[in-house]
Amino acid sequence: MSGPSVGKDQINEMKLNQVVTMLNRIIVDSGIPRNIRRAAFEALKMLNDKSLSPGVRAANAVSVLDEISQDPNMPSYARTLIWNIIAVLSSVRD
Q1: pTM, whole model, 2 decimals?
Q2: Which of 33, 56, 71, 79 has its CA 20 to 30 A from that of 8?
């Protein structure tokens, strides 16, 4: 195999950056209930805590998002977005 190798840390950071973008879409969407946007913001803060490893940051964010994903007031497009975020975060490993 040729070409530059991409390390696990770089892959994790790319995944986390992708999730940050997706969370920001939820946070700024006024069509999404405030409690759900607040949970997305909490997950975002957890992902930005550089004192923890990427895997721990991802797991912490998943726990917040998993709880809120069951909210019956959430628009279906937002629920799909949160499920996609959880799927990406679940693939982040230390």
Answers
A1: 0.88
A2: 79
CA-CA-CA-CA torsion sign (81, 14, 35, 60): positive
Q: Which of 29, 23, 32 is nearest to 62 (CA)?
A: 23
Q: What range defines the domain where residue 35 resides?
A: 8-90
Cβ-Cβ contacts under 8 Å for 54 (sequence gap 6 or more)? 9, 12, 13, 16, 92, 94
Q: Looking at the 3D structure of the chain, how many domains does it have?
A: 1
Residue bearing tokens 């700024």: 28
Q: Compute the 3-state secondary structure of the chain and give helix, strand, coil in percent, each to the nearest 5.
A: 70, 0, 30
3-state secondary structure of 57: helix
2 in a domain, yes or no?
no
**pLDDT, tens digit (0-9, with 9 covering 90-100), for 34-46:** 999 999 999 999 9
